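Quick one:
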Amino acid sequence: MPFPCLYSGSDAVEQATQKPYDVLICDVVMAGMTGIDAAIEIRIILPNCKVLLVSGNERTAEILNDAHEQGHDFDILAKPAHPTAIIDWLKVVSVLN
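Output:
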C-alpha cells in the first residue's frame, strides 16, 4: 500500500485508525500536534509501527527529552535528511529488503 502524505499530526493519527501502516516518517515541530505526540498516539493504535522523526528545529532536543522521560524513544534524523539516510533506516528496521 502506498504511504499517505499527510500534513498534520492529527491527520496522521486519524489515518492510523482507518488504514494501518507500518512506518511513520514525521517532522517533529508542526502546528497543533507535534510529530512526537502523533508518534506516541500512533504507537498506541499501531504498536508495531516504525517511527522516524526528522527535525531541524532547536526545540527538538527538549521535546524528545520530555518524551523519553515518559518512556517514549524514537529514531531521529536532522534536516535536511538525505533520502539515502531514510532508505538506510528503512532497511535497518526491515521495512525494505
